[in-house]
């Protein structure tokens, strides 16, 4: 009777999860839609705070800190790239030492401090460069003023990185991946996570940007500060409902150990006849892996399956379990399960790498596209729209498309394909990559039209707005926004569902790392293009103070070609990838 009683008690707990007080999480109390709804609301506030500044930062750096258009664009891409790259740190800490719950709270406070610094600087004239004088070169921000600017920016970047690395997996962990209903709810969560991200973005690029342009940047930074501060009590309000995954140690340790052991044993095998355990096993002898970290589930209790036979894929890594002294004892001792987990991560990496080029294109939304719109007619009736509010177009389209996708497209696809997913993660990512090719082609054509208007009316050297509506720029925004919806939601869910249980937060952070590398790559491509084109007698494509003298259309055609090649590259990896999840 006592044993049966204990069994019943265990079955009421979520195995591997605790509540916010570090007590076992209960199945009937923790997790589910209620818990995830707090995460979605927090994402609205968090992205409002971040995007309100990121979308208009290039104008702030140009007008108030007196950077050139190219330097402003590079500063913004470096700032945004750093923010997203630090998501890897947030994901790593969530998996290894802390929970996603604690990482979010720490990161939100760091972002709050950074926004306070930026608000103080924007409010005080003594902390900014003096205003430009007529017929005199503007004085660029330097010294202590520049130090204050970058301290504020990179505190914000650190906070944003920690939030991006912890908040999406925290929300996704609220669903039971062992049941079809739980997996469907988790898929819906990722769709609405992007939807809520867009809701925050909508407020940011309309109301907050208008405040920054008409009332002052101190008010814009102040609103962002208030938003991130408000997100903390909202997040805490969901504490009684959250289930938090227990950290299982550093995933990087496991990855490093397997890679080093495989290399050492590979060298040792050249001079010995050691036998690799079961390397010649047939596929039929390889254990069948379930959807959740190669585990089987009985009455909601995770039971780790003993895996003694390595799979045939990536055979090089199987050498990590060779019975040699270098790898059979001490810190280099590897289990077959650890080897299989590392294989999963390695297989994810090519898909991750193929999304980088898309995010390189997305970087243009925050840089050159905003500067293009600033030279055009931004009136909408009697209302003058700030150039930094242009992202409202992809944001609105995402907000319309996300519910349609979840309520109509996915159910229809499930009926047609007779599969649980309907449209696979890789298909969603592929659609996004294809749309990015179209977007960059449209961007090049629109820039040709914009410059033709300036040339025909002899306005190339004029500061007057060109008599061409900024709605032309909105077309490329719509395609890139659609690409972002398909790719970001698809990649987030793909990395989370395919990754080993102990590495979910880190793997999900790869989605944001792709954004980071894309922003950095954008800066690198701009520099390379200027260096290559500047070696001739002609002016570099993207150099100078006047955007009308740039060869931006050539740059966009280059991005279009690179995106097309990247899409072909992606098709190869997507075709050979084999899902490990039963839901796929």
Automatic annotation (TrEMBL):
It is found in: Membrane. Its main location: membrane. Pfam families: PTR2. It is a multi-pass membrane protein. The chain crosses the membrane at residues 31-51, 71-94, 101-122, 142-163, 189-211, 217-238, 348-368, 388-409, 429-448, 468-494, 506-529, 555-573. GO terms for cellular component: membrane. GO terms for molecular function: transmembrane transporter activity. Keywords: Membrane, Transmembrane, Transmembrane helix. Belongs to the major facilitator superfamily. Phosphate:H(+) symporter (TC 2.A.1.9) family. Belongs to the major facilitator superfamily. Proton-dependent oligopeptide transporter (POT/PTR) (TC 2.A.17) family. This is Nitrate transporter. It comes from Solanum bulbocastanum.
């Amino acid at each position: 009777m006592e044993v049966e009683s204990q069994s019943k008690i265990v079955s009421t707990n979520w195995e591997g999860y605790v509540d916010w007080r570090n007590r076992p999480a209960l199945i009937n109390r923790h997790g589910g839609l209620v818990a995830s709804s707090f995460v979605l609301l927090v994402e609205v506030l968090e992205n409002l705070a971040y995007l309100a500044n990121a979308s208009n930062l290039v104008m702030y750096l140009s007008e108030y800190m007196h950077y050139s258009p190219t330097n402003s664009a590079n500063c913004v891409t470096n700032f945004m790239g750093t923010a997203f790259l630090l998501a890897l740190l947030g994901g790593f800490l969530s998996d290894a030492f802390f929970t996603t719950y604690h990482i979010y709270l720490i990161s939100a406070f760091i972002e709050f401090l950074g926004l306070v610094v930026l608000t103080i600087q924007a409010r005080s004239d003594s902390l900014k460069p003096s205003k430009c004088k007529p017929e005199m070169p503007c004085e660029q921000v330097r010294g202590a003023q520049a130090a204050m600017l970058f301290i504020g920016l990179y505190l914000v970047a650190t906070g944003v990185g920690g939030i991006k690395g912890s908040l999406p997996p925290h929300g996704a962990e609220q669903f039971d991946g062992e049941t079809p209903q739980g997996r469907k709810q988790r898929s819906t969560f990722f769709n609405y996570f992007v939807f809520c991200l867009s809701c925050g973005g909508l407020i940011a690029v309309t109301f907050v940007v208008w405040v920054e342009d008409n009332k002052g940047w101190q008010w814009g930074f102040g609103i962002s500060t208030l938003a991130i501060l408000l997100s903390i009590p909202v997040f805490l309000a969901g504490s009684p409902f959250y289930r938090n995954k227990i950290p299982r140690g550093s995933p990087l340790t496991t990855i490093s150990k397997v890679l080093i052991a495989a290399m050492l044993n590979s060298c040792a095998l050249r001079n010995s006849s050691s036998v690799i355990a079961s390397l010649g096993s047939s596929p039929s002898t390889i254990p069948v892996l379930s959807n959740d970290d190669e585990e089987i589930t009985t009455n909601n209790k995770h039971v780790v399956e003993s895996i003694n036979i390595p799979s045939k894929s990536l055979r090089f890594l199987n050498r990590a379990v060779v019975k040699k002294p270098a790898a059979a004892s001490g810190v280099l001792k590897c289990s077959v399960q650890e080897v299989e987990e590392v294989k999963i991560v390695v297989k994810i990496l090519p898909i991750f790498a193929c999304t980088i080029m898309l995010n390189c294109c997305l970087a243009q939304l925050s840089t050159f596209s905003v500067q293009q719109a600033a030279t055009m007619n931004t009136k909408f009736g009697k209302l003058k729209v700030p150039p930094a509010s242009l992202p409202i177009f992809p944001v609105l389209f995402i907000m319309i498309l996300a519910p349609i996708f979840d309520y109509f497209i996915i159910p229809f696809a499930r009926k047609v394909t007779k599969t649980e997913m309907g449209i696979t993660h890789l298909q969603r990512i592929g659609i996004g990559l294809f749309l990015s090719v179209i977007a960059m082609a449209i961007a090049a054509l629109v820039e040709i039209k914009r410059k033709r208007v300036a040339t025909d009316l002899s306005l190339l050297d004029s500061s007057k707005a060109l008599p061409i509506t900024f709605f032309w720029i909105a077309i490329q925004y719509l395609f890139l926004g659609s690409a972002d919806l398909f790719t970001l939601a698809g990649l987030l869910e793909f990395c989370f569902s395919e990754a080993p249980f102990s590495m979910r937060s880190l793997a999900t952070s790869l989605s944001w790392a792709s954004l980071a590398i894309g922003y950095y790559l954008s800066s690198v491509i701009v520099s390379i293009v200027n260096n290559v084109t500047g070696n001739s007698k002609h002016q570099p494509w993207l150099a100078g103070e006047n955007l009308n003298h740039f060869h931006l259309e050539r740059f966009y055609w280059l991005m279009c070609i690179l995106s097309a090649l990247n899409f072909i590259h992606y098709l190869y990896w997507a075709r050979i990838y084999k899902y490990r999840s039963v839901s796929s």
